[in-house]
Amino acid sequence: MTDIILHHYPNSPFAEKVRIALGIKQATWKSVEIPNVMPKPDLMPLTGGYRRTPVMQVGADVYCDTQLIMMELEKRLPPPPLLPKGREGEARGLAMWIDRNIFWSAVGVVMGELGDKLPEAFKKDRSDFSGRSFDSDKLRAAVPMARDQTYAQLSLAEAMLADGRNYLLGGEPTLADCALYNPVWFIRQRLSPTASPLDRLPKISAWSERMKAFGAGTRSDLTAADALAIAKAATPAATKVDADDPSGLKAGRKVSVTPDDTGRVPVSGALVGLTADRISVARSDERVGDVVVHFPRAGFIVTPL
Ligand SMILES: N[C@@H](CCC(=O)N[C@@H](CS)C(=O)NCC(=O)O)C(=O)O
């Protein structure tokens, strides 16, 4: 019942951020493959509308966004730590910068190169997802700029490795490395390990080989139907609403939670958990029974209904 279940698909770079963390921690986990475009009929009963990839499930608890998934892995799995003592803020801050900036520059590089080869259904889906039209010609024309931006940002990480350290924060990999692996892996995987601008970043290239060697832990496949049955048979873990939260929101209040950037589909439910770091809502669906869906606070808008 307490197995870690990752709902994801192979080509997802944000899922790779989580898979590499599972590798570092040598975890045993279950894998449910989801579609890379909408509709996602076997994911919606769990999330209540959240559509992004990946999603982590543990019994009847559903964790959205890798920011929160990584915190949950850290809590649930034994060392090595992803958040070294005393450096939690640095690791999380770097991850936020990478997720919200480097990732998008890397998407410009990859989608600019591959955009015209992708199916129309994918382009339409990603237009809805991002709120901006997926125009392959414009993306291709913007490749030099995207490479430039990716290089400018990755060179900051290259500089961190310049003193000979093996990982961004020192001798061991942390959350920051998992986050950086996402866009670097995306370019390596979809284009090539020497695609520009990686060809000008020797330290990042060597670092990414070290990261790749961690693998993805021990994974076994699970059907979506079995994942839903696991949720139905389980009870969500207890959570608490901070009585002093500045929002003034109280336990039981009906709210919706919506990402502030992409895939802006609101999830509604009763507020059952609220801390500086996370928002949790209880909801039910006939295929999964009662579940609690958890979101990070940063990057998500909570609206009382
Ligand atoms: N902030 C989110 C971003 C997740 C994200 O953008 N994932 C991409 C795939 S890598 C996605 O959801 N694409 C659309 C889809 O899979 O339906 C996180 O950290 O999990």
Q: If you had to describe this structure to a student in words, what would you say it looks like?
A:
The protein is of the alpha/beta class and 305 residues long. It has 2 domains: 5-80 and 219-304, Glutaredoxin (3-Layer(aba) Sandwich), CATH 3.40.30.110; 88-212, Up-down Bundle (Glutathione S-transferase Yfyf (Class Pi), Chain A, domain 2). Helix content is 41%, strand content 19%. It has helices at residues 13-24, 44-47, 66-76, 88-114, 120-130, 136-141, 143-160, 175-190, 202-212, 224-233, and strands at residues 5-8, 28-33, 55-58, 61-64, 218-221, 254-259, 267-274, 278-285, 289-296, 300-304. The protein has a 10-stranded mixed beta sheet. Strand 7 and strand 8 form a beta hairpin. Helix 1 (13-24) crosses helix 8 and helix 4 runs antiparallel to helix 7. The longest helix has 27 residues, at 88-114. The two termini are 33 Å apart. Bound molecules: glutathione (GSH). Glutathione is lined by residues 12-14, 36, 51-53, 65-67, 99, 129, 262-263.
